[in-house]
Amino acid sequence: MRVVVDLNRCQGYAQCAFLAPDVFRMHGDEALLYVPQAGAEQRERLVQAVAACPVQAILLDDGQDEPRTLPSGALADGAGGHGGGGR
Questions:
Q1: What are the two backbone dihedrals, phi and then psi, of residue 19, each rounded to the nearest 5 degrees?
Q2: Please, which residues have CB within 8 angstroms of residue 45's CB and are 6 or more apart in sequence?
């Protein structure tokens, strides 16, 4: 599945790195690094990371439908952000 992050929108909350550490990681305090192609085994963690991003900067294309972001709060996992801010 394809992962895209709008790094201009990303604010560095780092919740994506917490929820899907095999796909997202922080480099320093603000720069997000991520794997643009993730395996299907990461789907659940990626869906949680997408839902946790307060600025909806993560796009997930699982090949089933149109690429989409999930609305904030779509999953009740208590997380509230995602990583990034830099390139």
A1: -80, -30
A2: 19, 20, 22, 23
